Amino acid sequence: MAKCSVLLLGILLMDFSALVKSHHGNGTVRNLEEIIIGRCYNYIRVVNPTVGEKDCSAIWETFRNAFAYKEPCNVLPTDYKDFINLARHAIPRDKYAKEASGVVTVMLNGSVSDGTFPKEGFFAKHELPNLRNDKISEIQIWVMNNIDGPVRETCGTGTVKDLEDIIKGRNFSYSCTDNYSLDLTGLLLLGLVLLGHTERPLAKAGNKTVWTGEGSTENLKEIMIGRCFNYLGTVNVDAGEKDCPNLWKAFLSAFSEKDPCKITTEDYQPFLDLAGHDIPINQSIFWSQTKGLILQYTGVTHKVMPLESTLVGYMVDGLNWCGKLSSPEPNFEACPGWKECENNSISSFWKAASEDYARRAHGEVTVMLNGSARGDTFRNNSIFAEIELGELDNARVTFVHLWIMDNIDGPDKESCDVGSVAVLERILKEKNISYSCKDNYKAAKMLQCMDKLDHPSCRLGEKPIA
């Protein structure tokens, strides 16, 4: 599936089944203002900075005005016009209705009972009529059946044929594929927004007073408070009640008015104590040099909860921050780079958060490592080796699943029972923790193939070429 940026409009409203519901439905999502403003700043500062400046408070006001002081059943699409105009921005090629261009994709469910292409559906009524054949070179239709079936409709049949006839009648070029796959038996393609592969390195260098790293993320406060309310209200309601403004204050106090190279792990303990919550049994997963794949796997399966999917990690992942001695506010001009000093604000945070996360692990845990890494697969200076592994003990952890994942293009440098992986296995034995080790775990391998469908290693049973 092609990589894409998600629209600001979609980010602002995602996960709200209805923001103002009928009288028999749930009420408006709590802390809606903070969530939407936070999502707005998160989008323009972190997700898609190319959008440019937006007045997120004004965007919220126009959104609220669309339904405030109105009968909930009498809110019209035109009431949201001002909101849409303020939030609108250029759309990437190959995506979305009026401004879509190039190759666009339509994914439909061939297992539903009320028609794969419902005539009264949102796509049929609002999006399809706005596709322009002077801008679109091809429409790709993917008809996907549920993994357990049934197969009710396919290309060229039923309502799918109705859609094909409409597209042909409007002189679009198109193709239709049933259960678009990777030539892997039984694989159902899942929509993914691919995430960047990054690592949490440990900084090792001397102190400086002029920093070369980027400054704190603009609107850091609004982003973090918004993420907090969003997490508690829509992502993980089981995390319990939390005071999001107070969490921000605890986080800020860890580095505010302090030398940005003298931040300790203990400085973050008040924040961790306030934000911490239980990790479901058997859902802890640790990683090194495989962050993007871990987050893809998490988003698709919902069977694991890495640190980045806890409230602690969710609030800060992908952000930058540090303080300065002369002001209680974050330093938005420059922060120490990873290698400029060891005890910088971000490095100390991830060390503290990782230790706290590992202490909460119980039951079966999973570890995903990179078998194609330039250095060792199990690096003795990684956060997993230095901090997290030491916190795992056989009183709480009953089993460890090791997954050694090679990059899609290889090389296959290390695998189970080989090199540094063998060292990790020996440590687990010494800790009396039972474990298994798998090379290129199939479910994760399928996710790697999403972006390189024709790669030879994406055939079952084959390894990347060394």
From TrEMBL:
<comment type="similarity">
    <text>Belongs to the ADP-ribosyl cyclase family.</text>
</comment>
<keyword id="KW-1015">Disulfide bond</keyword>
<dbReference type="InterPro" id="IPR003193">
    <property type="entry name" value="ADP-ribosyl_cyclase"/>
</dbReference>
<dbReference type="GO" id="GO:0016740">
    <property type="term" value="F:transferase activity"/>
</dbReference>
<feature type="signal peptide">
    <location>
        <begin position="1"/>
        <end position="22"/>
    </location>
</feature>
<keyword id="KW-0732">Signal</keyword>
<dbReference type="GO" id="GO:0061809">
    <property type="term" value="F:NAD+ nucleosidase activity, cyclic ADP-ribose generating"/>
</dbReference>
<dbReference type="GO" id="GO:0005886">
    <property type="term" value="C:plasma membrane"/>
</dbReference>
<dbReference type="GO" id="GO:0030890">
    <property type="term" value="P:positive regulation of B cell proliferation"/>
</dbReference>
<keyword id="KW-0520">NAD</keyword>
<dbReference type="GO" id="GO:0016849">
    <property type="term" value="F:phosphorus-oxygen lyase activity"/>
</dbReference>
<dbReference type="Pfam" id="PF02267">
    <property type="entry name" value="Rib_hydrolayse"/>
</dbReference>
<protein>
    <recommendedName>
        <fullName>ADP-ribosyl cyclase/cyclic ADP-ribose hydrolase</fullName>
        <ecNumber>3.2.2.6</ecNumber>
    </recommendedName>
</protein>
<keyword id="KW-0808">Transferase</keyword>
<keyword id="KW-0378">Hydrolase</keyword>
